Amino acid sequence: MDIDNLVRMANRIGDFFEAMPDADEARDGVANHLKRFWEPRMRAEILRHLDATGGAGLKPVVIEALKKHRALLVPAQAA
């Protein structure tokens, strides 16, 4: 799986939700989108990237969403 592509996709999601005036709502929106539309291995890979690099290349809103909602995003088989 190409982590650069996942980072790019996550940042585009972050761009959309970052426009929301409420930062908590933006983080929740990012996490809910990832949960609903990304397959489990994609979520697992972006979380591994966060752990390995601190989220290199990811927008702050995406990093915050991943940290705040990690339990929601961890695929069931990886939990």
Q: Explain this structure to me?
A:
This protein has one domain (3-74). Helix content is 73%, strand content 0%. The protein contains 5 helices and no strands. The radius of gyration is 11 Å and the shape is globular.
Question: In a few lines, what is going on in this structure?
Answer:
The chain has 79 residues and is mostly helical. It contains 5 helices and no strands. The two termini are 20 Å apart.
Topology:
Layout (H helix, E strand, L loop, with lengths): L2 H16 L4 H15 L2 H14 L6 H9 L1 H4 L6
Helix pairs in contact: 1-2, 2-4
Structural shape: globular
Structural class: mainly alpha
Oligomeric status of the shown chains?
A: single chain
How many separate domains? 1
Mean pLDDT: 95
* pLDDT < 50 stretches: none
Total DSSP helices: 5
Beta-strand content estimate: under 5%
- Terminal CA distance reads 20 Å
Query: Describe the biggest sheet?
Result: none
What is the strand tally? 0
Task: List the main descriptive attributes of the protein structure presented here.
73% helix, mainly alpha, globular, single chain, 79 residues
